[in-house]
Specification:
This protein is an alpha+beta fold. It contains 15 helices and 19 strands. The strands form 4 sheets. A 6-stranded mixed β-sheet has the order 2-1-5-4-3-11, sandwiched between helices. A hairpin with a 2-residue loop joins β16 and β17. α1 packs antiparallel against α5, α10 packs antiparallel against α11 and α13 packs antiparallel against α15. The two termini are 39 Å apart. The model has no long low-confidence stretch (mean pLDDT 77).
Length: 588
């Protein structure tokens, strides 16, 4: 397919046009993807850092609140009653508006004041935030639920010192998470203009607090969703690179949250986005690019196709005109307008064809003269020798007395020479004139057996063994006598080529509309140079031959609509192949 000029031009044009376009598209796609990844990284990291900073400020403000509360004059004075302390804590809650309630505990962990009055007398000494506050630290707890509040809470705790600096208890407010969500949501909107994001806080134990579940918290769900472990969470928080979820659908920016208070676990702010939404502009670009590429590609195909048709059409017409010329028709140049180079090529071909025709005529004339010369020389040679012999004997008879015995002897020799001339003339006639063929259908196997049973070589060669390998009947359509003449000539030549003991073998195979009959011998063979001339009239390798035998066989096989082929290797033998028709369809 790629051998045709049109196909090659079309293919090369498409490669030349498409490869740069494809490379440009790949480079553009990669550049755009890198740009979007950088934008997403910057946007998510900036958003998460903003949220972290606001969270830091928010939590530290709450810690400042609890410090201020722990220094309240009523709270630090043991002389005030429980009711007075509860009223003071309620005033604090009403003023700040970010807390569910506040507990005041003594040094044993007993609740001595409660804004909700639900936990008075309860002992909370085993709570982590109590233990940390007793040690003198401000502390921020994890998120958890209590029976006092219906929603999850985060608890702050701070030690309470009297005027003498002695620790007399702790205060522990539980603040609302709504304020934290509102702050985080406000900062998240700054990056959600580009694409929607989701955000949450998570600690190193996998507890996530999120607006997704404002009335509770989720254990381990975030880590599983993100494909993270506790170790990977810490590792990801120390890098500016975005983390991709295990299923590859989400990307996250993870930043640690720092506070001035002690915390039960490390907390992290996570801002995530859907990869499809992040890279949607890239997908749109790819779709547009593929559309443009397809349009350009189809346009190139159509343009190059019509261009190649214009370029190749004159070449095809020139090829057809040349094939017509080879088939014997006149070489005609197309009168359709074409490009200048093609018109010059047409004219050059026309001049070349005219030159070829002139040279063919000259060659034919030369070959005819050469053939006539060879024929004349051969005829002169074959006839002159017998005539010289006859002339010599006539001169002897003229110069001597008329001796009956001598006349008889000389007459026999002259008659023999006349027979030689007659035989030669007969062979010439066989070669030159057409014969009236008697076509018939007969069994080649029986025909060969009949010939071999009665065959006696003209040059007795009793040392030659004939092997007939044609054992199956196969019918051919030919002239018996003419085919017999060919076979006898081939057999005689094979016998004469065998100087010592040898054999001649006949084999046949059937082909489409022909029988292939092979006659091979193991005689002296023919050299390659001599084999090229075998079949030319008067060319012979035998001392007493006239060179008409093989030429006659070739002529007869052509008349019989068959074929005569000869192969030979010097000192190894000769193989003659006859192709004999099996049907009269070849006969015209």
């Amino acid at each position: 397919m790629l051998k045709s000029l049109q196909t090659r031009i079309l293919l090369f044009s498409l490669l030349i046009a498409s490869v740069p376009l494809l490379i440009l598209g790949i480079i553009s796609y990669g550049s755009q993807r890198s740009l979007l990844e950088k934008e997403a990284k910057n946007a998510l990291n900036a958003g998460s850092l903003n949220i972290v900073n606001e969270t830091y400020s928010y939590l530290n403000e709450r810690i400042s609140d609890v410090k201020f509360m722990s220094a309240n004059s009523v709270i630090i004075n043991p002389g005030h009653s429980r009711e007075e302390k509860s009223d003071e804590l309620k005033k604090f809650i009403d003023a700040k508006g970010n807390y569910y309630g506040v507990l005041h505990l003594d040094m044993e962990g007993n609740v001595i004041a409660d804004t909700s009055n639900k936990m008075i007398g309860d002992n909370l000494a085993n709570r982590k935030w109590f233990k940390e506050a007793i040690e003198g630290h401000e502390f921020l707890s994890d998120v958890y639920k209590t029976r006092a509040f219906s929603e999850p809470i985060m608890v702050l705790s701070a030690p309470v010192y009297d005027d003498d600096g002695k620790m007399i208890g702790i205060v522990s407010p539980a603040f609302r998470l709504e304020g934290l969500w509102e702050m985080m949501a406000k900062k998240a909107t700054e990056i959600s203009d580009k694409y929607p994001v989701n955000f949450f806080m998570i600690n190193q134990e996998g507890i996530m607090i999120s607006k997704k579940d404002p009335h509770g918290f989720m254990q381990d769900s975030a880590l599983k969703e993100m494909g993270l472990t506790k170790g990977k969470l810490m590792e990801a928080s120390l890098s500016d690179d975005l983390y991709s979820s295990e299923n590859g659908e989400k990307i996250y920016s993870i930043q640690p949250v720092h506070t001035i208070a002690e915390t039960e676990n490390k907390w992290f702010v996570v801002v995530g986005a859907d990869k499809k939404q992040v890279f949607q502009p890239l997908n749109d670009l790819l779709t547009r690019y593929l559309t443009i590429y397809s349009i350009v590609f189809v346009s190139i195909i159509l343009a190059v196709y019509f261009l190649t048709k214009t370029l190749v059409r004159p070449v095809q017409e020139l090829v057809e005109a040349t094939e017509d010329f080879i088939g014997g028709k006149e070489f005609i140049i197309s009168d359709k307008r074409s490009f200048e180079e093609m018109e010059k090529l047409n004219l050059a071909f026309l001049r070349m064809m005219e030159t070829i025709e002139d040279r063919e005529k000259e060659i034919v004339r030369t070959e005819k003269l050469k053939y006539v010369g060879q024929l004349a020389a051969g005829v002169a040679h074959e006839i002159r020798n017998p005539l010289t012999t006859i002339k010599g004997f006539f001169q002897l008879l003229k110069s001597q007395d008329h001796d009956t015995t001598l006349i008889q002897k000389y007459s026999d020799v002259m008659l023999h020479e006349v027979d030689r001339v007659n035989e030669f003339v007969t062979q010439l006639l066989d070669l030159a004139k057409p014969h009236q063929l008697e076509w018939e259908k007969f069994d080649l196997k029986d025909f060969l057996e009949e010939i071999l049973d009665t065959y006696t070589p003209s040059n007795p060669s009793y040392h030659v063994r004939l092997i007939n390998g044609v054992t199956q009947s196969v019918f051919v359509y030919s002239d018996r006598n003419r085919l017999r003449q060919v076979l006898l000539n081939v057999l005689n030549n094979s016998c004469e080529a065998i100087e010592a003991r040898g054999q001649i073998e006949l084999q046949q195979t059937s082909e489409s509309q022909n029988v292939k009959l092979v006659i091979s011998d193991d005689g002296k063979g023919i050299s390659l140079d001599d084999l090229k001339n075998i079949g030319m009239p008067f060319f012979t390798t035998k001392p007493d031959g006239n060179g008409l035998g093989v030429a006659t066989c070739i002529q007869i096989m052509e008349e019989l609509k068959g074929e005569f082929q000869m192969e030979s290797v010097l000192d190894e033998g000769t193989k003659v192949t006859l192709y004999i028709p099996t049907t009269n369809r070849l006969i015209k």
